[in-house]
């Protein structure tokens, strides 16, 4: 595991984009796993400033709210279009469809697509409660793409983006822990003191479903980029 400590989010973004660029230029990046959330904004800002060419790369996103489509300004599909896909051309882009008629079939279909395009690199953030994607505490390490109920901690953290707390969906579709761990390389980004507990648990604690980010300890190639100092003391 590589731990890269930076001073600013912009510096972190440069490092993350450097890692992506290295994989891309070496021809090892066919399938790229992307994430949403405030953490990812500087990364996509940086990425769109480069001349990196993703036209041969298939992109997969981690998750989507149940009930929101790409037209909804709070959907993750909308976020991705705004921050990246409208500016950078990819071969194909996939995101779970939170408005699918049959959500169970949608999850199976998504997992099938992932099996056809094994992820070379997955960008990840972490929730204050240690979730990765929307795999909340208590999620089994064997999970594939599935439907989940969001915890109160996640609703608290994400509802400020919505008109009101009540307007925020309480369910989502998310890649599972096992879908994420299948990625060849994982780049985890964590900024700000709110993420310290989860990151300390990851770096110093045991692997436990109470803090899903700890499952990354079982992955052979994780790079952490963070502005949190003294994480390992
Ligand atoms: P954030 O979310 O980037 O908005 O902090 C990260 C996450 O919940 O995974």
What would you note in describing this structure?
- The chain is α/β, with parallel strands linked by helices and 233 residues long.
- It has a single domain, classed as Rossmann fold.
- 30% of the residues lie in helices and 18% in strands.
- The chain is built from 7 helices and 10 strands.
- It has helices at 9-25, 41-49, 76-85, 103-116, 152-158, 177-181, 196-204, and strands at 2-5, 31-34, 58-61, 63-65, 92-94, 121-124, 146-149, 171-174, 185-190, 222-226.
- Helix 1 crosses helix 2.
- The longest helix is centred in the N-terminal third of the chain and has 17 residues, at 9-25.
- The relative contact order is 0.18.
- The site of 2-phosphoglycolic acid has 6 residues, from loops.
- 2-phosphoglycolic acid (PGA) binds next to loops.
**Name of the CATH first level:** Alpha Beta
Which small compounds were modeled alongside the protein? 2-phosphoglycolic acid
Q: What is the general shape?
A: globular
What's the N-to-C terminus distance?
16 Å
Enter the CATH topology name: Rossmann fold
Number of helical segments with 4 or more residues: 7
| Low-pLDDT residue spans | none
* Share in helix: 25-40%
